[in-house]
C-alpha cells in the first residue's frame, strides 16, 4: 500500500460555466405570459421601491441579469424571468411574496443556482427572488453547538465558520464554494459524508420561512426536544421552494473529525466493492465510502490533473475515509485491508499518510464530474437500498447496453448510502439534441428499474422540472395527492416555484 504525490488542480466546479440548451425551451403558459406584462412588472417594482424599502440596486431587469439569475446548472430550459429582486431581510421577502399574490406573478427562489434538476430555473416570466444579499452569519450558541444564519450563506462559508469555532459542518459536495444553505435546505442536499453524518435535514434545528401566503413562521426555534405536534420544519426541507421561502436557519454543528485517513482500493468485480464496504463497516465507523468505475478513471487520467492510483487499472474503485486518532483503529483498518486482499476482493490499494495526501486521493472522486462534463453526459441521480445495489447496477447496465450499445456508461456515487450517479456519455457522431432525445426515450426503462427495487428517481438533486415526469416511479398517486394538498395549504394561489416537483 502506497501514498500519492501532489498534482495540479483543475478549475473548481463552481467556477465552470454552464450553458443553456436553446433547443429545449418551453413555451410560456397563458398565465405566465400575462404575468410578464411590462406594465404589471413596472407596477410591482414601483410598489417595492415606494412602499417596502427596496433600493434600485435590489432590483434588476436587464437581459444579462435575467439570464444569469434565471438559470441553474441544468441545460434543459432557457431562462426567461421578468425581474430579479434581492431582499435584505425576512420582512422584505414577505413584501415580495404578498405583492406576487396581489399581482398574480409566480416566484422562483434562487440560491447559488448549482442545482441539477432545473428547480431554480425561471423560464416563464417569474420573479426571481435571490437570497444573495441575505448572507449573514448571526448568533452562535456554544452550549448548543448551533449557529443562526441567513439562507444566502455559502456552504463553504458555514464550513469555515464552524472550523474557526473548533467545530465542523459535515454536509459537503463539489459545489460547496457556491451553493447556498437555503438551496441546500430546499433540496435536502447530501454529498460525500452522508454515510456518517446524514443529509442536510439532520443539521437543521430550526427555520424561519415565509409561506406562499406571505406568513412568517418560526419553526422549532433551534430546539432538540420539542414535542408539540407537527414539525412543519421538515415539510420545508426538500420542498424546493414550492411551499415558501426559507430566510433563516438554525444549524447544528459537530465536533471536528480527527486524523482523517483515506484509502483507495482497486477491484475487479462490483460485488467485491460491496463486500469491502460491509467488512470495513463491521470494524470501523466510516465517514465516507465512494465508488467509481474504470471509465471514470480513464477520463480522469487523460486530463493529467490526477495521479494514477495503481500501476495496473482495475474495473472498479472504492474510496473510503475514517477517523484514526488512535493506533488501534489504524491496526483494525490494516488488518481488514490484508484480509480483503487475501480473500481476493481487493486487487490493489493506496493509503494516505497525512492530510495533504488524503486531499490528493479525494481528487480521484471529486474531479470526475467536471472531467466528464466535456462529454455532455446525460445524468441520472438515483438511489436504492444498499442491499439491492449490485443487482440494480446489473439491471441498469443491461437496459442501457441493450438499447444503446454504442453509448459509454460512467458510474460513480455515494455507494455507502445507496446513491448512484449514472452518466451516459455522448458519442462524437451525435448532436446534443439527438443524444438527449435518445437518452430520454430510455428513461422510462431506467426508472422502471428504480421502481422495481423501491428506489428513488432523485437521491439528492431534487425533482425540479427534469425529474417531474418521473415522480410517479417513486411516489404513489395517493402520496402525490397529499403533496399537492400540502402545497394548497401553504401556497393557495400557487405562486411559489410553480411547475416544480409536480404541476398544479
UniProtKB/TrEMBL annotation:
<dbReference type="GO" id="GO:0071949">
    <property type="term" value="F:FAD binding"/>
</dbReference>
<keyword id="KW-0560">Oxidoreductase</keyword>
<dbReference type="InterPro" id="IPR004113">
    <property type="entry name" value="FAD-bd_oxidored_4_C"/>
</dbReference>
<dbReference type="Pfam" id="PF01565">
    <property type="entry name" value="FAD_binding_4"/>
</dbReference>
<feature type="region of interest" description="Disordered">
    <location>
        <begin position="1"/>
        <end position="24"/>
    </location>
</feature>
<keyword id="KW-0274">FAD</keyword>
<dbReference type="InterPro" id="IPR036318">
    <property type="entry name" value="FAD-bd_PCMH-like_sf"/>
</dbReference>
<dbReference type="InterPro" id="IPR016167">
    <property type="entry name" value="FAD-bd_PCMH_sub1"/>
</dbReference>
<dbReference type="InterPro" id="IPR051264">
    <property type="entry name" value="FAD-oxidored/transferase_4"/>
</dbReference>
<dbReference type="InterPro" id="IPR006094">
    <property type="entry name" value="Oxid_FAD_bind_N"/>
</dbReference>
<feature type="domain" description="FAD-binding PCMH-type">
    <location>
        <begin position="77"/>
        <end position="256"/>
    </location>
</feature>
<keyword id="KW-0479">Metal-binding</keyword>
<dbReference type="GO" id="GO:0046872">
    <property type="term" value="F:metal ion binding"/>
</dbReference>
<dbReference type="InterPro" id="IPR016169">
    <property type="entry name" value="FAD-bd_PCMH_sub2"/>
</dbReference>
<dbReference type="Pfam" id="PF02913">
    <property type="entry name" value="FAD-oxidase_C"/>
</dbReference>
<dbReference type="GO" id="GO:0051990">
    <property type="term" value="F:(R)-2-hydroxyglutarate dehydrogenase activity"/>
</dbReference>
<keyword id="KW-0862">Zinc</keyword>
<dbReference type="InterPro" id="IPR016164">
    <property type="entry name" value="FAD-linked_Oxase-like_C"/>
</dbReference>
<protein>
    <recommendedName>
        <fullName>D-2-hydroxyglutarate dehydrogenase</fullName>
        <ecNumber>1.1.99.39</ecNumber>
    </recommendedName>
</protein>
<keyword id="KW-0285">Flavoprotein</keyword>
<comment type="subunit">
    <text>Homodimer.</text>
</comment>
<comment type="similarity">
    <text>Belongs to the FAD-binding oxidoreductase/transferase type 4 family.</text>
</comment>
<dbReference type="GO" id="GO:0022904">
    <property type="term" value="P:respiratory electron transport chain"/>
</dbReference>
<dbReference type="InterPro" id="IPR016166">
    <property type="entry name" value="FAD-bd_PCMH"/>
</dbReference>
<dbReference type="InterPro" id="IPR016171">
    <property type="entry name" value="Vanillyl_alc_oxidase_C-sub2"/>
</dbReference>
Amino acid at each position: 500500500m502506497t501514498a500519492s504525490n501532489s498534482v495540479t488542480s483543475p478549475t473548481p466546479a463552481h467556477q465552470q460555466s454552464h450553458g443553456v440548451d436553446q433547443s429545449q425551451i418551453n413555451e410560456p403558459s397563458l398565465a405566465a405570459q400575462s404575468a410578464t406584462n411590462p406594465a404589471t412588472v413596472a407596477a410591482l417594482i414601483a410598489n417595492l421601491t415606494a412602499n417596502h424599502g427596496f433600493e434600485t440596486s435590489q432590483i434588476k431587469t436587464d437581459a444579462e441579469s435575467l439570464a444569469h439569475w434565471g438559470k441553474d446548472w441544468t441545460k434543459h430550459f432557457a431562462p426567461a424571468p421578468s425581474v430579479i429582486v434581492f431582499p435584505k431581510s425576512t420582512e422584505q421577502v414577505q413584501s415580495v411574496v404578498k405583492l406576487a399574490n396581489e399581482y398574480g406573478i409566480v416566484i422562483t427562489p434562487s440560491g447559488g443556482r448549482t442545482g441539477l434538476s432545473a428547480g431554480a430555473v425561471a423560464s416563464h416570466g417569474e420573479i426571481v427572488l435571490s437570497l444573495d444579499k441575505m448572507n449573514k452569519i448571526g448568533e452562535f450558541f456554544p452550549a448548543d453547538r448551533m449557529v443562526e444564519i441567513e439562507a444566502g450563506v455559502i456552504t463553504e462559508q458555514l464550513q469555515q465558520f464552524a472550523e474557526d469555532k473548533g467545530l465542523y459542518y459535515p454536509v459537503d459536495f463539489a459545489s460547496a464554494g457556491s451553493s447556498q444553505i437555503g438551496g441546500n435546505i430546499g433540496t435536502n442536499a447530501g454529498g460525500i459524508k452522508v454515510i456518517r453524518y446524514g443529509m442536510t435535514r439532520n443539521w437543521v434545528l430550526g427555520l424561519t420561512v415565509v409561506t406562499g401566503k406571505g406568513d412568517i413562521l418560526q419553526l422549532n426555534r433551534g430546539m432538540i426536544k420539542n414535542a408539540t405536534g407537527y414539525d412543519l420544519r421538515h415539510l420545508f426541507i426538500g420542498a424546493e421552494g414550492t411551499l415558501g421561502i426559507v430566510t433563516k436557519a438554525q444549524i447544528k454543528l459537530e465536533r471536528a473529525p480527527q486524523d482523517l485517513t483515506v484509502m483507495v482500493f482497486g477491484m475487479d468485480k462490483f460485488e467485491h466493492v460491496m463486500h469491502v464496504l460491509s467488512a470495513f463497516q463491521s470494524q470501523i465507523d466510516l465517514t465516507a465510502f465512494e465508488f467509481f468505475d474504470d471509465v471514470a478513471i480513464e477520463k480522469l487520467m487523460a486530463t493529467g490533473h490526477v495521479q494514477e492510483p495503481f500501476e495496473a487499472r482495475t474495473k472498479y474503485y472504492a474510496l473510503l475515509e475514517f477517523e484514526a486518532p488512535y493506533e488501534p483503529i489504524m491496526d483494525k483498518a490494516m488488518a481488514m485491508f490484508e484480509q480483503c486482499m487475501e480473500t481476493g476482493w481487493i486487487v490493489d490499494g493506496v493509503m494516505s499518510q497525512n492530510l495533504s495526501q488524503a486531499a490528493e486521493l479525494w481528487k480521484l472522486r471529486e474531479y470526475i464530474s467536471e472531467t466528464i462534463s466535456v462529454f455532455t453526459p446525460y445524468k441520472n441521480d438515483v438511489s436504492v437500498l444498499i442491499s439491492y445495489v449490485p443487482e440494480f447496477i446489473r439491471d441498469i447496465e443491461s437496459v442501457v447496453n441493450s438499447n444503446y450499445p454504442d453509448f459509454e456508461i460512467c458510474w460513480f456515487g455515494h455507494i455507502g448510502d445507496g446513491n448512484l450517479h449514472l452518466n451516459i456519455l455522448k458519442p462524437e457522431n451525435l448532436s446534443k439534441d439527438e443524444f438527449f432525445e435518445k437518452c430520454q426515450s430510455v428513461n422510462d426503462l431506467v426508472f422502471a428499474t428504480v421502481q422495481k427495487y423501491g428506489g428513488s428517481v432523485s437521491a439528492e438533486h431534487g425533482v425540479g422540472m427534469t425529474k417531474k415526469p418521473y415522480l410517479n416511479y417513486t411516489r404513489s398517486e395517493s402520496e402525490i395527492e397529499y403533496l399537492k394538498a400540502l402545497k394548497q395549504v401553504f401556497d393557495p394561489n400557487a405562486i411559489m416555484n410553480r411547475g416544480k416537483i409536480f404541476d398544479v
